[in-house]
Structures are given as structure tokens and as C-alpha cells.
Amino acid sequence: NATILMLARNSDLDEAVEALTSFETQFNHRYHYPVVFLNDEPWTEEFMHGVSSVISGQAIFDTISSEMWGYPDHIDQDAARIQIKEQGDRGIVHAGQESYHHMCRFYSLKFYDHPAIQPYKWYWRIEPGISFTCPINFDPFAYMSREKKRYAYAIALQEVGSTVRSLYRVVSDYKDRMKIAPSRYWDALVDPSWAPLPIRWLLRLAPYRDVYGDEWNLCHFWNNFEIADLDFFREDRYRHMMEHLDKLGGFYYERWGDASVRSFAATLLLKAEEINYFGD
């Protein structure tokens, strides 16, 4: 009960065909998993025909509603657009693109409830323009189900700090307020401060710091290749955390990325043994 998900635009046709051809060659020609294509605009016949011709599984095309792809009611849209423009003027990566902010919010707290995704338990996210350089001779979905894994990543990177200046602090505060005991993966994201207490009280005022002065090292799971148990995202504890972050407005007033948000959620809410690194 699994699907591949590609979020794309009609203009991404060439990059989508390139990615799917690679994916089919290295993996899916053996398993024929369906591919769900989502877009915030109607699909063209050219796009649908182009990608359908290179995949071996069912192609499912759907659009994203304005409720899922757009400003929530609690966001001051005029203030958000001013912030987005200022972020773009400062050269923050993708931050000047309104649609990119919508995408980060959609992937953080909406996509798993989309009607086209709702029937599935497992999903594998791929992006237009990516490539798979070697054969994948096993089924990652079957592996994760058998080994009781719930979230998997293939690459860990450093986040662009200017996009997430307040994110770690608000997540850390949420962890403390909810009395969540994080996994060892959380510890790997945090560099503890060894400064004396008075200095630590000053450090907590800086970006990427928590109330104790400890610092997020900006490491995160790059989720463009993530494989996950969608039921994890649908659990009350994940929804509660995402709703809390959403109300703070950081998807728009800053440019909180879905990869960093997902990394914090996984390391806080899952056991370490439920997270898998596909290093091969």
C-alpha cells in the first residue's frame, strides 16, 4: 500500500521525465508502484502524456486545493507578502517566491491528507530533475515495514540559517512544554553550550539557540528523497506539533523549510530505531 509522490508544475515536464526515467530504470520497472502527481494548477495534456509514457505503474494526476496551498486564515497576508519581498531582497534562497512558502507549509502539514494520498500508508517523495545513479535491488517499502521503520532519509545537509532563525527555539520550547523525551537523533542536531551560566543566558537570545544557550548545528534530513509511513504524519501528536508551528507564522514571516520541520518532528516524536538512513 505505497505510492511515489511528485509535486511538479507543467513547465517541469522535461525534468520530470528525466527523473522518472532514472527512477524506472534503477527501481520501479521491477515493482510498478503508482505515481501521484500533484500541482496547484490543472495539468496539461502534454505533461500527463509525457510522464505517463515513461512509468510502469499507474499515473494519478490531481490538483491541490486553495485550502491546502495558500495562506491560512490566521496569517496577515499583507504583512506576509512584505516579509517575503524583504527576504527575497536580502537574497535568502527561494524566500522571495510566495509559492515556495506555500510548498514548505504544504509538505509540512497538508500533503498526507490530500485525497490522492489518503489511500496510502507509505510514500516515497521524488522531485523533477533528480537522478538515481545505481540500481536499487530491494523494495524499501517492504524493508521499512519488516524492520518497523517509520521515516527514512538518504542525505543530511546543513540548513541555510537565514531561513530558520527562530525555528529551533520554538521547537525546543515546544519540546519542553510538552515534556517530550527526544531520540538520540535530536542530540545529534544540537551542540551543547559549555559556557558559564551567565553567558548561557545571553546566548539564548541569539538565533538557533534554545533557552539553555544550546545551539542547533543546522543539520537536517534532506527530505527530497524521504520515504515515510504516512500514518506517522496523521497521528495526533504530529498534527498537534504542526498546528502549533503553523500558528506561529514562520512558514511566511520567515522561510521555514519542510525538511527542517520534518527533521525536528521525526527526532522528537519517533524512537531512534524507527528512523532509517539509506546510505546505499
Tell me about this structure.
- The structure is a single chain.
- It is built from 12 helices and 11 strands.
- The protein has one domain: Spore Coat Polysaccharide Biosynthesis Protein SpsA, Chain A, CATH 3.90.550.10.
- The longest helix has 16 residues.
- The model has no long low-confidence stretch (mean pLDDT 95).
- The radius of gyration is 19 Å and the shape is globular.
- Helix 1 links the parallel strand 1 and strand 2.
CATH architecture: Alpha-Beta Complex
Q: Helix and strand succession?
A: EHEHEHHEHEEHHEHEEEHHHHE
CATH uppermost class? Alpha Beta
- In one word, what is the shape? globular
Q: How many alpha or pi helices?
A: 12
> Helix/strand-derived class?
alpha/beta
| Secondary structure tally: strands | 11
Strand order of the largest sheet: 3-2-1-4-10-5-11
Provide the domain count: 1
Main sheet specs: 7 strands, mixed
Q: How much of the sequence is in beta strands? A: 5-15%
Helix content: 40-55%
Q: Whole-number radius of gyration?
A: 19 Å
Low-confidence stretches: none
- Termini separation comes to 24 Å
CATH homologous superfamily designation: Spore Coat Polysaccharide Biosynthesis Protein SpsA, Chain A
Organism: Aureobasidium melanogenum (strain CBS 110374)
InterPro entries: Glyco_trans_15, Nucleotide-diphossugar_trans
Pfam families: Glyco_transf_15
GO cellular component, one term: membrane
Topology (SSEs and partners):
Layout: E1 2-7, H1 13-28, E2 35-39, H2 45-52, E3 59-63, H3 77-89, H4 98-109, E4 122-125, H5 140-147, E5 151-153, E6 156-158, H6 167-178, H7 184-189, E7 190-191, H8 197-203, E8 215-216, E9 219-221, E10 227-229, H9 230-233, H10 236-248, H11 250-253, H12 258-269, E11 275-277
Parallel strand pairs: 1-2, 1-4, 2-3, 5-11
Antiparallel strand pairs: 4-10, 5-10, 6-9, 7-8
Helix pairs in contact: 1-2, 4-12
